[in-house]
Design a protein that fits this description.
single chain, about 200 residues, alpha/beta, five-stranded mixed beta sheet
Length: about 200
């Protein structure tokens, strides 16, 4: 999974020559933005990221401190999933259009960042103890991430936390193959490209 994501990342980076790139500091995090969508305002996605990080800092400060230690940067870019963690540069990706949507709360965005933060924490522990990553551990690791989401949802005010709790509980109830599914990244990329083309035509 990590190898596939890394390959996809390299392909993605090679195709974003028209991206509007910029480095920003959001609450002490280095944030790299690669905005390939002219219909999305960079300032708007940075504002949503700030809102999400503020929720983590307020309601789960220990997780916030972990993110500070475990991540080198937050990367905002177009990608065929909401979030991903890249261990080679300790980068947490938060997807551009996911941040741009206003029908998704900042709490959901925050829970996604926390999810990837758990991957980062597990990776650091694995590296510290010299342990190899075992593909058989994928479901277990995903469950750790979902349990962190659940804990975060329960720490939030009920109106903010309810959708976070519901999503985490639904995923935790699945079997291992569904918790950590095999993703067809070529199909995911094709769907993303079709959505971008539709957005360009509407613009």
């Amino acid at each position: 999974m990590i190898v596939v994501l890394a390959r996809l990342l390299r392909r993605f980076s090679a195709r974003t020559t028209n991206a509007v790139r910029g480095l920003h500091d959001i609450r002490g995090f280095q944030v790299l933005v690669e905005n390939t969508r002219p219909d999305i305002e960079t300032d708007a996605v940075l504002e949503r990221l700030d809102d999400a990080l503020a929720l983590i800092e307020r309601y789960q400060p220990h997780r916030y401190r972990h993110l500070k230690r475990d991540l080198n940067q937050i990367w905002i870019a177009r990608f065929p999933c909401r979030g991903a963690y890249f261990p080679h540069n300790r980068s947490c990706l938060t997807e551009l259009t996911f941040l741009a949507r206003r029908d998704i709360s900042a709490a959901i965005v925050a829970s996604s960042i926390l999810h990837e933060g758990i991957h980062a924490r597990v990776d650091r522990f694995r590296h510290h103890f010299g342990a190899a990553r075992n593909v058989d551990d994928a479901a277990r690791e995903e469950r750790l991430c979902r349990k962190a989401e659940l804990s975060f949802g329960r720490a939030l005010p009920s109106d903010l936390g309810a959708p976070v709790i519901e999503r985490a509980q639904q995923t935790l109830s699945l079997d291992d193959d569904a918790v950590a599914p095999t993703i067809d990244w070529q199909l995911a990329r094709a769907r993303q490209n079709a959505a971008d083309a539709d957005a360009a035509n509407l613009g």
